[in-house]
Amino acid sequence: MMLPMARAATTSDVFNAIAEPQRREILLLLRAGERPVTELAQELGMTQPGASKHLRVLREVGLVRDRKAGKQRLYGLDARGLRPVHEWTGGFERFWNESFDRLDAYVQDLKQARQEE
Amino acid sequence: MMLPMARAATTSDVFNAIAEPQRREILLLLRAGERPVTELAQELGMTQPGASKHLRVLREVGLVRDRKAGKQRLYGLDARGLRPVHEWTGGFERFWNESFDRLDAYVQDLKQARQEE
DNA sequence: GCATCATATGCCGATATCGGAATGCGTCAA
DNA sequence: TTGACGCATTCCGATATCGGCATATGATGC
Asked: To which H or E segment does residue A113 belong?
């Protein structure tokens, strides 16, 4: 028997990990340097467990690393995992430049179709 | 009363739309030019309804556009929506270059800490 | 030890997601 | 008109996801 499958686990894929807006916010903040969990939660207006859970996902895909500092745990950025995403989207760069005329023609078609309604 | 919210709808966000591996495959294929649904489904080894559903998501975030061609419906790439993703990840470029020494230092710390156990 | 602060984890409910299968709808050709 | 083709939509079941809340774990200091 074949059981149905759902979406791939977020923890296995960087694309999925950064699909969450709050996780993207965390990564942006961490560009300024390491931060403890509570500080992140406070600055982003989320609860401490919420921040911890997002950080766990980010850690599992390797986008952040953590370091014990006394009573606290400092999270820091490891942006290397973002490079494949950058390169993947970069593979489309010539398409979002090259195709302006084709797109313009398409937009004209839309306008015309709308007037004919 | 406050009802809980789940993940943001995939149709509202390009990041979410490209979180799906099969949707990324579709986009890659469309770089070679417009294709009808059945051809996409066949080349990617998925069912026709499966392809249609993924194409619908991609259309709703604006990454593909469709055009009627007789009995068929041709899907074409509109890569402009990928540009924000490229730029967002690009904002981390200096971190996946610059931080090699910091990462080295971090690895050294780990080794040292391990020896002190 | 005990209290306290910082963080992680577990459980829950609501919803989103994905694949499969069946079916609906539109278009073309005979 | 009827059939065949191409594609979209719908329903379904299993699972993933996210937020909130309570609670466990862990480290520090007294």
From this structure: helix A100-115
What per-residue confidence (pLDDT) applies to B116?
A: 42
> Do B72 and B36 touch, CB atoms closer than 8 A?
yes
Tens of pLDDT, residue by residue over A43-53, are: 999 999 999 99
**Which amino acid belongs to residue A38?**
T
Q: Nucleic chain C: which protein residues 64-83 of A have CB below 7 A from it? A: 66, 71-74
The pLDDT value recorded for residue B49 is 97
> Residue A65: CA atoms inside 13 Å, Cβ hemisphere, count?
11
Distances (CA, A) of B14 to A54, A79, B10, B38, B80: 20, 20, 8, 24, 11
Contact A103 B78 (CB under 8 A): yes
Q: How far apart are the first and last CA of chain A?
A: 50
CB contact under 8 A, B19 and A24: no
| Cα distances (angstroms) measured from residue B56 to each of A7, B40, B49 | 17, 13, 10
Give ∠ CA B57-A50-A66 in degrees, rounded to 5: 105
Q: What length does chain A have? A: 117
- Closest nucleotide (C1' vs CA) to A50 is D19
As a whole number of angstroms, the distance between CA B78 and CA B64 comes to 5
